[in-house]
Automatic annotation (TrEMBL):
Protein name in the entry: META domain-containing protein
Organism: Arcicella rigui
Coiled-coil annotated spans: none
Gene3D superfamilies, per the entry: 2.40.128.270
Top-rank taxon, per record: Bacteria
Classification via PROSITE patterns: PROKAR_LIPOPROTEIN
InterPro entries (alphabetical): DUF306_Meta_HslJ (IPR005184), HslJ-like_sf (IPR038670)
Record-annotated DUF306 domain positions: 81-146
Pfam families given in the database record: META
């Protein structure tokens, strides 16, 4: 009887230790968008409804590329937080980005950007207008998606997408970034 009890105990312990580990869909999706979103991005254009524009308009001189750098936020309790920063038209900026949802099949999701701040350097009227548009779209962003270009580059759309199922010329308002690294 003792032998059967010992065998049962050993067999039970063995079976419990061999259970398959399940990775929740949330964590596999988190890893997918974490890897895509992390890194350096360069603003290549801005979509405003049905109009595609250059980062600072057609004739506005630029002090360099408008950029976004995303790093995982080690203090985020959800594991979905990023610290973002970069160069706008005039100033350096910083903010917190929280991913709220992600659809791995469509490569798109929802997010919230908070605590947007910047340095306070002076710029020309044109550069300040460019920066103001950039900050407005960034601070109001609710959606994002990843696209692969024909050249194989990763493109990030970040802003507010028009989700209206009716045909329309208004695709939303969003920033279009190209991954640099």
């Amino acid at each position: 009887m003792k032998t059967i009890s010992i065998i049962t105990l050993v067999l039970s312990a063995f079976l419990l230790s061999c259970q398959k580990q399940n990775v929740s869909p949330a964590s596999s999706e988190r890893n997918a968008y974490n890897e895509e979103l992390k890194g350096s991005w360069k603003l290549v254009s801005v979509l405003m409804g049905d109009i595609m524009d250059l980062p600072c308009g057609t004739n506005t001189p630029s002090r360099g590329d408008l950029s976004l750098i995303a790093n995982l936020d080690s203090t985020s309790t959800s594991g979905n937080g990023f610290v973002i920063n970069g160069q706008s038209a005039v100033n350096l900026y910083f903010a917190h980005l929280e991913v709220l949802s992600y659809n791995q099949e469509k490569l798109e999701g929802t997010l919230k950007i908070s605590n947007l701040g910047s340095t306070k350097m002076a710029g020309t009227y044109e550069m300040n207008a460019c920066e103001s548009r950039f900050f407005n779209i960034l601070s109001e962003a609710k959606n994002y998606r990843f696209i692969k270009s024909n050249e194989g580059k990763t493109i990030l759309h970040l802003g507010t997408f028009n989700k209206n199922p009716m045909p329309t010329y208004d695709a939303g308002t969003y920033l279009i970034f190209e991954k640099v690294k």
